[in-house]
Amino acid sequence: MEKEFSYIFKIYPSSVDFQGKLTVASLVELLMEAAGRHADENGFGMRQLNEFNASWVVLRLVLEINSYPAQYDEIKISTWIEKIQSIKTIRNFCIENAQGEVIASATSEWIMMDLAYRKPKNLFSLQGFKDFATGKESTAGRLEKLHPVKGELADRLSVKYSDIDINGHVNSIRYIQWLCNCFDLSIYREKKIVRFEIHYLSELYENEEIKIFREEKEKNDFYFEIANNTKTACRARIKFI
Amino acid sequence: MEKEFSYIFKIYPSSVDFQGKLTVASLVELLMEAAGRHADENGFGMRQLNEFNASWVVLRLVLEINSYPAQYDEIKISTWIEKIQSIKTIRNFCIENAQGEVIASATSEWIMMDLAYRKPKNLFSLQGFKDFATGKESTAGRLEKLHPVKGELADRLSVKYSDIDINGHVNSIRYIQWLCNCFDLSIYREKKIVRFEIHYLSELYENEEIKIFREEKEKNDFYFEIANNTKTACRARIKFI
């Protein structure tokens, strides 16, 4: 049984920004796609979980980026489960370019959500899943706690049709797009994002009014909070170099 | 030489809406992708045009949709050039499901833009291109003129980083997402879009403040105008059934 799987993706024009480079949001979308295929092909994918009214939910993600692929480049995403605890599991990623150089790496934390009770289910109840734990760490480092932000209001928006995914809440990728939109093109011309961290805290729904707060704790190192009127939806960090 | 090309696409989770159906914006994105591949594989793609500082620009699109594919479905997009005039060319599409049933069709009008002068170039200067004209019409009907709209303000927004593509202006797909976002989820639960038309009139850039006007000319038949402070960026139509 293979525990680490690799998938090749071509970077299409819709995934690149004004400089022709893969966006952070599109890279995370491809990571989610690789995770989905890996789970699907091994009997613990979304469709299998849906059969007993459960779903995978990503809670935290850390992404380190050394260099950005361009339009029409091919990248290889390898993914594996690092460890499995009763409530959460760690999934890691390694991203290589066509020359086999590591251009990015990521680690992420997931729960299996019981869709009826909106609570995590015990992962050991997922037959055969525990055999996938490899113990292999990510070079992206560990998932650290992100602290509350008391910063400036960087953006405000309301949740629309195109933000909502099949689970009925705002898609996890959209949060990343919103955060990256807090910077002008001039910043992206001068700098690049080398580290991205996100910690999902609560769901967002249609027509909610959202505020995004930003605090530059150190030069080029920004911490964020996305909140609706009553609570924090996520905390995040974007580090430029 | 093949003049009509077909491409298979799988519908990934990132392309579906809250009901698990392919969105209109994502469908058009796939049409653009098919058009790009067809052009690329036959020597008149973006990369070839870029060599003499030109680019393809879509001016108008009409899309008829009979039924929507779901997440993980495969669809076949066939595309061909209907005709070529000195300044513009008509490209058509036929979209089939895995059972070979036609689920949608589209027609579109393009120019080859001279990037130095921001003016159309003569298409007969594109070597070998005229041999691709097939004369074959689309079942989506003709590209009709869209008239000015004097409707209600349906939305307002400002152009952000993620809206800008490699040409430095707002991506043509983003306009479609903005238009579809003018309706609540409740509308999509009850109805489906059966016809979508768009006529691109002028480019939009970073930080521009945009207004979207909407007029329901007949029941379930909406006409739109997207405008910045000085001019109309596009006119469009969304018909539900």
What is the compact description of this entry?
Chain A has 241 residues and is α+β, with helices and mostly antiparallel strands. Chain A contains four helices and eleven strands.
Structural overview:
2 copies of one chain form a homodimer. The first copy, chain A, is built from 4 helices and 11 strands, in the order βααββββββααββββ. In chain A, helix 1 runs antiparallel to helix 3 (172-180). With 241 residues, chain A is an alpha+beta fold. Chain A folds into 2 domains: 5-132, Hotdog Thioesterase (Thiol Ester Dehydrase, Chain A, Roll), CATH 3.10.129.10; 152-240, Thiol Ester Dehydrase, Chain A, CATH 3.10.129.10. In chain A, strands 1, 2, 3, 4, 5, 6, 7, 8, 9, 10 and 11 form an 11-stranded antiparallel beta sheet that branches. Chains A and B meet through helix 1 and helix 3 of A and helix 1 and helix 3 of B.
Arithmetic mean of pLDDT of chain A: 95
In whole angstroms, how far apart are the ends of chain A?
40 Å
CATH homologous superfamily caption of the largest domain in chain A: Hotdog Thioesterase
Kindly state the number of beta strands of chain A. 11
Main beta-sheet annotation of chain A: 11 strands, antiparallel
Tell me the greatest interface: A-B, 33 and 33 residues
Strand content of chain A: 35-45%
User: What's the number of structural domains of chain A?
Assistant: 2
Structural class of chain A: alpha+beta
Radius of gyration of chain A: 18 Å
Total of DSSP H or I helical runs spanning 4+ residues of chain A: 4
CATH names the topology of the largest domain in chain A as: Thiol Ester Dehydrase, Chain A
Q: Which runs of chain A of at least 5 residues are low in confidence (pLDDT < 50)?
A: none
Question: Which percent bin holds the helix content of chain A?
Answer: 10-25%
Order of helices and strands of chain A: EHHEEEEEEHHEEEE
Which CATH top level class of the largest domain in chain A fits? Alpha Beta
Q: Any idea what the shape of chain A is? A: globular
Oligomer: homodimer
CATH architecture of the largest domain in chain A: Roll
